[in-house]
Design brief:
The protein has 106 residues and is α/β, with parallel strands linked by helices. The protein is 27% helix and 24% strand. The chain is built from 4 helices and 5 strands. It has a 5-stranded mixed sheet with strand order 3-2-1-4-5. Strand 1, helix 2 and strand 2 form a beta-alpha-beta unit. It is globular and about 35 Å long. The termini are far apart.
């Protein structure tokens, strides 16, 4: 168990403005959990990089119009655009961890 508790206002207090998801765009990867943040915290910029089933991706674009979907891009292009990368999974990890937040280090 190597996790730490992060205060709920951590992102706001660090001056972050953009949050990103990179990976396969599918339900089991937790992309909808990430996208739901755009409805709860609309003042941030949300960026998604990756491919998925075209019908599913189009559905997400319509449901979350304030999210930028880049498609498949070079990872360096993606990482230059985001302050925080969120790595999510629907797999129930043994220690109950489902989210990993990684701030960009300049």
């Amino acid at each position: 168990y190597n996790s730490i508790d992060i205060p709920s206002n951590y992102i706001a207090t660090q001056g972050f403005h953009s949050l990103g998801f990179i990976g396969t765009i599918s339900k089991h990867k937790g992309v909808e959990d990430f996208l739901s943040l755009s409805l709860m915290f609309p003042s941030y910029r949300y960026i998604v990089a990756g491919n998925g089933e075209s019908d599913y991706v189009e559905h997400l674009k319509k449901r979350y119009p304030n999210v930028t979907f880049l498609g498949r891009v070079d990872r360096d292009v993606f990482f230059q655009q985001v302050d925080v990368v969120m790595v999510l999974s629907k797999w129930e990890e043994p220690f109950g961890l489902r989210w990993l937040v990684i701030p960009r280090l300049n």
